[in-house]
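Why does residue order matter? Because the sequence determines the fold. Keep that principle in mind as you read this record.
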Amino acid sequence: MEEEPQKGSARSEGVLAVLNVVPNVERAYLDQLLTRFADDRAAVLNELFDKPYPKSTSSVTPGKGKKRARSVERDDEDERDWMNTSERGQTTAKYRDEALEQLCVDFRMIPKAAVRSALAASSHCYAPASVLLAKQSKQSETERGWATLKCGRVAGKGKGKGKETVVGSDLAKEKVWLARRTVELEREKEEDEEAAAQGLLVECNCCFGEFRFEVLLQCSEGCVFCKECAQQLASTQIAQQRHTLPCMSSDCPAFFPETEAARFLPRSQLAALQKLRQQAEIDEAGLAGLEKCPWCPFAMCIDDPYEVQKLFVCEREGCERTSCRKCKKDEHLPKSCEEMIKDNDIHAVEDAMSAALLRRCPKCTVPYLKSDGCNYITCAQCHTGSCYVCQLVCAKSPVHFDMTYHPGVPASSTAGSKCPLFDFDNSRAVDLKKVEAARTQAAAEVRAYNPDITQADIDRLK
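Structure:
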């Protein structure tokens, strides 16, 4: 039975910090490491990551009592790139609060406002925020825009008092990954410096930077490239819907083999290339009756001809849309494809006429429609006052409006270029002219590429 570490001393804080990252290390062995490395937590973590260590039969989760032992051996989670915020999606409110509190513990000399700002700049993700704060802490006060605290925050105080990261949670896994990544980057830096001193660096054939040979990628003909250039090539190929990775040397016709691609590409890009490869293989197979969903990668063979089965029903979970096998649009039975296209083009003319009639709030852009009356408009959403005539933000005052204009009474001759506050007839006539002009222009554009639309179809919109 191992005792739960108590908070207070520097040693106990070191034990808590290490257990948060490696929760299954034997307590007695951890004490020995802390003594050997003079309570240097980074050195202790390096030792635990680099060498095997005795594991506890029961892991203590600081602040939570005893838990069953959990393995922290590398698994699929280690392949996850926690720095890639675009693939992680939106974080939960609970995770953001825990990440903020953990960063405040990790960087006790940095103001909480600066920590919160770094977390927001990192899409509310712990790992990139931690890297950003570590970088900022090495900058000058002028460069980073904030000063360090004169006295660091006291552990165990604030919103997260008494709470520790739960072993097995996303944040706990992220902390383990970041610690390992930090150790690996330091090791790579040392190896780069040693190789540079020995003159063993090799030049990338694309960016011409110098790297250790073992971290470079090779095409099937032996051309070498750095990881960053190879990943950029993969991103470009995927964006262009291509599944192959050609050599970046202009005079080399070779490609990167799949074994090399697996070395430097994240799982998301490998999956995207695999999907493109599968689609290309299906296309090249020339299967009879092959139909594809217009909105997702799902495909299937339909034996019946279009005249018998006109619709394609996607069976992929999350899509499940029904489309027309002929025009590849949303299903439109009983109308034919031609009738549907004609209706859509006529709707486009109607939309142009509606857009000409609508005004938008100059501040929040919410649309509105005025039939008659006062030309001073108050937005129903943001309550901004504006002029219906010139669509500028203004106050309801003589500074902007001719206040003497009423039905049947001519505008003041001294109003100059002021907008009329009341305009019952003129504004309506102006709006109708704009609508007619929009109808004429949109009709000409539609009829230019769809001759099936007649002038009679357009005239019915008046």
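The longest strand covers residues 58-61.
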